[in-house]
């Protein structure tokens, strides 16, 4: 593989635990250095835990490399300052801080990309003095995305950015991610398959804390039977309510690639 | 009327002392989840440091008094920072061990102070004005009450300004709310931990010097006796809330003073009952985060 196409993120035999409970087991996958890679799976299969394990937010073992350098032994703040932007599930804005304070806190150096953020999220400029806890869900998601986009990143880890949002806001979020993906690779956890179809080139599917499928996102979604078996919904279904997760062993091992 | 005024102002003074201890306790718990049972020792060491400089340079001088405040705050800050750096840093997320270590440090330092300064209270004096009284509505109020209240208000304003207008303050406020998300923004939140301990220790050290003037003596047990009420104040105010600590400090001290005078010395009982009522009706405290 040439350096040009070397993956930005490589995860090898990654396992993770929360309070002693195994939530991710021995997973391996790569994220290319351009475009959006979707991390998919039914509810509770370990997608968010995988993102948190990559960041070191939960106890983990295995190997994680960013741009060819091991990061699995580093604390979270060091991994992030290497250029990993994080948009967490449920936004996790600081409710008691203003919008401006939320953004200022996220600035990692003296040259934050404020102009880009102001262009992408003009509503946040108008609401800069408002407490983030009083914003709507969609506006909080904008704050969460803006915090990540303020900095030059090597990789964005985006966890369910459209969860619980109105269709109009979902479209806006997707558009923002599409714009961001032109300059930075994204590992995207997303339940809304319409959004996945619009954004993602590659797909990694988890079940029961294990990788059960990797390949093209478009090909996966085009195969309705495979999509239904792996994700519990049809490829054309834009439902945000996927079926609960079966154990990995319940899935046909042939789908592993 | 004069009794009410005297009780109210004395209560405010006592509340100011509680706040100087509770502010640090509350910030430390809010950011790091550490219940610091050694916090009273920061106060006691600050008080002894203030007394040492006073007896060496002339207790009746205002310069000495100001120096004793500065030294008390500095000693409290250094001891608190060392406590975090040498002991507590290794024990984050290990709450039982934190309690054991900080309780142990609290007991060991009391024994150390007794070894150095003896077990008997050491009586102190300050500038002449502090020893005098001022008449308000017929009540003769000791001037040291006004000094304690004045300094506590300054400390409250200083901490609020620090939290509001500095980057470290921003990190601390965010960290109290969601520490792991602060880390996920690329911030080494542990640097803020030491700073918060130091700020809390400085407030406690300052409180130690003022408490020694308020009560007229300093003893190795001074910090421990105030720490109990500071913990109650911190819980009632809401763990992690500076404003809650300030409001609860005043409320608890006033309740204690009035109950002591009007209900046959039941001030401590009234405070414990108030704590029970708050825990039963509002477990997260007046302004604390909901669990």
UniProtKB/TrEMBL annotation, chain B:
Q: Does the keyword Aminoacyl-tRNA synthetase apply?
A: no
The cellular component terms of Gene Ontology attached to this UniProt record, alphabetical and capped at eight, are: plasma membrane
Pfam short name (any one):
BPD_transp_2
Q: Where are the transmembrane segments?
A: 6-27, 34-53, 65-87, 99-117, 146-172, 192-215, 227-254, 261-281
Q: Which InterPro entries match?
A: ABC_transp_permease, BCAA_transport_permease
Q: Which family does it belong to?
A: Belongs to the binding-protein-dependent transport system permease family. LivHM subfamily.
Q: What would be an example GO MF term here?
A: transmembrane transporter activity
Biological processes per GO annotation: amino acid transport
UniProt keyword annotation of Membrane present: yes
Q: What is this protein called?
A: Branched-chain amino acid ABC transporter permease
| Key words, A-Z | Amino-acid transport, Cell membrane, Membrane, Transmembrane, Transmembrane helix, Transport
Q: Where does the record place it?
A: Cell membrane
What membrane topology does the annotation report for this chain? Multi-pass membrane protein
